[in-house]
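Preliminary data (for renewal application), NDP complex.
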Amino acid sequence: MDLGLADRAIVVTGGSSGVGLATVRALLDEGARVATCGRDAERLKNVAATLGAGHGRLLTEVCDVRDADAVDAFVRRTAEEFGAVDGLVNNAGQSRMKALDEATAEDWRDELELKFAGVLNPLHAARPHLAASDAASVVNVNAVLAKQPETRLITTSAARAGILNLSKSLSAELAADGIRVNSVCLGLVDTGQWTRRYAAADSGLSYEGWQAELAADRGIALGRLGRAEEVAYAIVALLSPRASYITGTSIDVCGGVGRSIL
Ligand code: NDP
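Predicted structure:
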């Protein structure tokens, strides 16, 4: 099936690793033009060298999504180079492993800032361009924590719930401009976040053994962590003009760890 993404211009935040990187790769495979950002210049340079060489369809820029001016400049450059912005994937970020008694006021502030600025800054910058597109789609990368909070991730769970709520409002608000807004809610996906936690845990287990224990502990029905490209598949489907009647919804990509039936 042709997803209709060839030559579409898509902004993916946080495309130097994990889910964002897999999404950039999948979009390039579909013939889209992709702009992505992250904070670490070296990692972005590697992505550009690996995926971008030669075809002029990948733009990378150092940009922290919490910095509205930097995001404005990044999106402006994307629109100048590609002549359009048809899609936006708000993916950049990470979770914060803090329980109630560990989370400081600063943890709460930082977590809420990252999650909300990570959606609102790129959205504000891209909105006029999206409104001019005939197939505008925004995908917010979220977590099943939004619907199923975990006390060990109390700040992230609360922020995630807020973002799911915000996504619904945005879908209603932006429908008049023809902009669809949806979410993907991740369970546990094998990316940099988990390799960092494996290293920090110093468990003495192999990475596979540690993952298997984690999957059992968290009750993942499919018995394993997800792969970044399995999430990218859902994101690309929601970006596709073929998903033209899908807005205001969320897709769980979580191997069955989600218990919510809504
Ligand atoms: P990774 O750590 O593998 O990648 C995160 C990406 O975001 C990197 O490119 C990173 O680059 C970038 N990034 C992080 N903070 C910022 C920032 N402030 N501004 C710009 N770029 C930033 O993470 P994942 O692929 O696992 O996660 C992707 C998204 O999915 C995140 O929002 C995460 O919270 C969410 N998620 C992931 C889950 C999982 O199990 N993996 C579960 C639930 C949700 P750099 O560090 O150079 O800035």
